[in-house]
Amino acid sequence: MVDALPPPGDMGSAERRFWRNYNEEADKYDDVLTKSWKGDMDSILIFAGLFSATLTAFIVESYQRLEPDSGDQTVLILNQLLLVQTALAAGNSSPVPLPTRTSVIPEFRPPTSILICNIFWFLSLSFSLASALGATLVQQWIRSYLQDSQNTSPITHAKIRIYLYDGIKVFKMNTIVGVIPILIHISLFLFYAGIIAFFYSINKV
What we know:
The chain is mainly alpha-helical. 80% of the residues lie in helices and 0% in strands.
């Protein structure tokens, strides 16, 4: 039975061939997996960047409606001063009370629809930025995943790859990658909801 065992040198050669074949198949699988993830994350980063820039322009416009218009306030004050001057020019001997800020400018309360619109759009921007951050982190992880096991022996390469792949399962990377596009979808739904509220504030049905 001892004579039937392969020489130690042959066993080492077989082991190296095994790990080399394993690495080749594992690298093919990892290449397909990481390319798929990287392609998705690249698309999300581009879309999130363009969408966030567009959404910011809408927020700048809607945010101004949360404060009273300074131009309208100036017109009200000038009208009150004009009334005072007209009364004085007409020879009104009774003292004319000077207008105060509270008597001239009514208390400003932004419409509820504008408040809702801004809430939706700020939430939408937050989800969009969160998706961009998640996509960036996934891309960094992909680069680390592909580079950590380079320039090593076949068995070391295989051990590092197994360790990293176990991390994919433990930290549920597939789920994380799947959640990031959902954040973009939520951001879009909130944006459309904000548009409805914005147009409702302009022209109430």
